[in-house]
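Render this sequence as a predicted structure.
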Amino acid sequence: MGKSTVAGWFEQRGLPVVDTDLVARQVVEPGQPALQAIRAQFGEGILDATGRLDRAAMARRVFSDPDARRALEAILHPRIREVWHREAEGWRAAGRPAGVVVIPLLFETDAGGDFDAVVCVACTAQSQQQRLTARGWSADMAAARVQAQWPVRRKMALASHVIWTEGSLQTAALQVDRVLAALGLTPTIEFTPSDSIR
């Protein structure tokens, strides 16, 4: 959809950002309780030769088995939420007027109510498929991941703001400016749109 690109633009505009995709990687590093819980739930086969989570093997497992996906989410989501809550509290304590938390499964995890505003980053299903394929995902894997989420139209309807990433980078960047203006936020620095939507 372009969440990472848009989040980068908000960050360039002076807002602190925490990306829960990155947090999800951090909480499963070796020695972390989440990795121990995953190993206990799914067995040693989900670890690679170095003792790290084999993300490809885990993805194949959970996107072909809804019960396995729910079990993994029950391990990860509370830990991820704890991290971004802590980040947000730090922003408040520092007197930051706003911050951005990137949560691909915001509504699915019932976290929408934790925010004053929700920005949905969206594009057409065709563009989403092309972007996932460009990342090296097979068509089946991309479809499985999309099906594990709410339909984008439903997310758009629930969001307070939508950034449509189907057009040019400049058009998407202007939408970031409009969202900031609607929220009464003034960018602290100028920024240049990146050269691709991620």
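Summary. Residues 31 and 131 are 33 Å apart (CA to CA). The two ends are 7 Å apart (CA to CA).
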